[in-house]
Amino acid sequence: MAKVLVVAEHDGAKLNAGTAKCVRCALGLEGAEITVAVFAADGAAVAAEAAGLTGVARVLRVDRPENAHALAAVLAPQVAQLAAPFSHVFGPSTTFGKDLMPRVAALLDAPQLSDVMAVESASRFRRPTYAGNAIVTVEVEAGLKIVATVRTASFEATPAGGAAAVESVAVNVPLPAHTRFAGVSAAKSDRPDLQSATRVVSGGRALGSAENFKLIYGLADRLGAAVGASRAAVDAGFAASDLQVGQTGKIIAPELYVAIGISGAIQHLTGIKDARTIVAINKDAEAPIFEVADVGLVGDLFAIVPELEKLLTA
Amino acid sequence: MKRILVCVKRVIDFNVRVRVKPDGSGVVTDGVKLSLNPFDEIALEEALRIKERGEAQEVVAVTIGPADCQQQLRTALAMGADRAIHVVHDGGVEPLTAARAFLQIIGREQPFLVLLGKQAIDDDNNQTGQMLAALWQRPQATFASKLELAGTTACVTREVDAGLETLEVDLPAVVTADLRLNEPRYVKLPDIMKAKKKPLDSVSLADLGVVPGARVRTVRTEPPAQRQRGIMVKDCGELVAELRKRGVL
């Protein structure tokens, strides 16, 4: 039987959607018993939210002032200590999980599987390599603890509706002071978060300028969508780098993805191939984005976008 | 001597369209161009810039791989690394094995900073830097887009999902490079000639006392599921009608 420890990702107040996706992935292991660990300065609210996820058997709450910010060097020894009785340790394949989990794996002398996209058995998983161009099935040697990051775009979030017990635990390991949080600057926005939005509107190089890129914001607001950008648009300075969608940016799986003035470089397509419906608007009928789009429209984006906005308002 | 160690990996060149072998045993590598992992190139560039600012005295590049990956080490030397170390090993190297080997090199070289790419673009594991920092019991700053040294500490800006995070870490530390840390320089012909005379030492994994792990076996390699080409609409009205029909609006 698989005993899975899922490391919760949160901002101190709310659980990140990636955690519920990790739980869903863990439910794919036969007879899985799932425990969620919440490391925080005060994890009451987050632990309560985790306890409500369907499929979670138990929530371990580790409150320490050092856990106010998610520093891999500080969290890893605590996760490793908690991990002793578990067969699997999962975290989301977000920058949080990618930073933390390998450090945990090294402390546990365990192999890590990155970006798990499917579970075949308790020791056999599928994951993407070569920017998603080759999918490998990997088998971990029997009897080893398995650390994994879960590709969030591959799993639906497990719904709320559970009622697991929350247990406060003390993890008494010495924590290093060599790594200190100095700040975070986020582009403050009332728009949905790109990573978890159900609708995303992205703009590419064809927008031509940061000024013109505002067109994308207008349409996104009309749709209640998050805003994304291609690497070309980011490199050209039209959009901030945290909006970048693609293999080297964010990999997303919204219900609706609207690509405007994006030609569709492989690395961009890798980031959107799990979207439910892809809409492409481009003046070049030969653009590769049309090869993957569910609905395509060839034309001038500077005419189409305002017209779409008008139609959606009506 | 203030030394920076840069760990690099040889990978299939990022411009190559990777193809899966029909028998599912891996990807096609015969006759395919091999290069330094692009993120490792960025890591090396950062090390060179630090040295050029006078904040380090020596840049050492290290790789693990078969005999012919010395070619990529020569590229690192041509970019400006002072020395290179080749840990000779045929066959695959798991991230934890790589981290153990690099830890041994750290023991020999005593760097004040270790730089790597955030991930190699072949296995896309994104593990080695973090594992190395854990084994070394030193700070890690992954996904770096800015690195400033200040005496015994470094200030690193990281590209995280929430935006840009800044960490202060004590040195020595491990920093992994993200795309926007810098733009690597082009290698000029005279530099390639000069690189041939730079020291390149070889050592085997066994010499370092590292036993390669083989705990994760690749059972099968497949191409990804392809999306089907959809339909084309003529105008905005048709587009909105189609999306309403599909229930996405």
- Under CATH, the topology of chain B can be stated as Rossmann fold
CATH homologous superfamily heading of chain B = HUPs
Q: Tally of extended strands of chain A?
A: 16
Number of domains of chain A: 2
How far apart, in Å, are the first and last alpha carbons of chain B?
Answer: 63 Å
Q: Indicate the structural class of chain B.
A: alpha/beta
Distance between the termini of chain A: 56 Å
Per DSSP, the total helix count of chain A is 9
For the largest beta-sheet of chain B, the strand count, sense and barrel status come to: 9 strands, mixed
Spell out the helices and strands of chain B N to C: EEEHEHEHEHEEEEHEEEH
Q: How many DSSP-defined strands of chain B?
A: 13
Structure, described:
The complex is a heterodimer of chains A (314) and B (249). With 314 residues, chain A is an alpha/beta fold. Chain A has 2 domains: 3-168, Rossmann fold (3-Layer(aba) Sandwich); 199-313, Rossmann fold, CATH 3.40.50.1220. In chain A, 28% of the residues lie in helices and 27% in strands. Chain A has helices at residues 17-27, 44-51, 72-82, 95-108, 210-223, 231-235, 266-272, 289-292, 301-313, and strands at residues 3-7, 33-40, 56-63, 88-92, 112-116, 118-119, 124-129, 134-140, 146-150, 165-168, 179-185, 199-203, 226-229, 256-260, 277-282, 295-298. The longest helix of chain A is centred in the first third of the chain and has 14 residues, at 95-108. Chain A is elongated and about 60 Å long. The N and C termini of chain A lie far apart (56 Å). The mean pLDDT of chain A is 94. With 249 residues, chain B is of the alpha/beta class. Chain B has a single domain (3-217), classed as 3-Layer(aba) Sandwich (Rossmann fold). Chain B contains 6 helices and 13 strands. In chain B, the strands form 2 sheets. Chain B has a 9-stranded mixed β-sheet, sandwiched between helices. In chain B, helix 2 (70-79) links the parallel strand 4 and strand 5. In chain B, helix 2 packs across helix 5 and helix 3 crosses helix 4. The radius of gyration of chain B is 21 Å and the shape is globular. Chains A and B meet through helix 3, helix 4, strand 5, strand 7 and strand 8 of A and helix 3, helix 4, strand 7, strand 8 and strand 9 of B.
